[in-house]
Design a protein that fits this description.
By secondary structure, the chain is an alpha+beta fold. It has 5 helices and 4 strands. The protein has a domain at about 15-25 and about 55-135: Glutaredoxin (3-Layer(aba) Sandwich). The chain starts with 12 loop residues before the first strand and ends with a helix.
Length: about 140
Amino acid sequence: MAVSGTRRASRPVRLEVLAYAPTEFFHCQHCEVVWDHVGLGRRIHGEQRSAGLLPADLQADYEAISDWILDASGRYGDRLQFSLIDAASIEGVWRAVRHRIRRFPAFVIDGRIPIRGFDRHRLEAQLAQALEERQEVT
């Protein structure tokens, strides 16, 4: 029951970001403790990072998307909820099949509007429309 004079907060718009994400490989938790204890864990993980977790072009895409997400998060606040999904993960493959996405990065707004490629203007326009629709519903 709503109290008079208060407004119900609207649900945030969900934005799924499907992109190749840097992945660092670890052993099981017990083995990691042993590797760290004998002094090899940090060296092994350091080698992974220095070798580059992604090729240069994918790393540049990932950084541009990360910068945009930070900016959008500041502008939209709690009206926008982000999910970063690694395109090479099982969940990423499932989302790609579900939304017929063949190239990455890709974005899915509220589970129904796929945007292929990182086109900031198109993404901003679709987000603005989804946010406006969400405001009209409440």
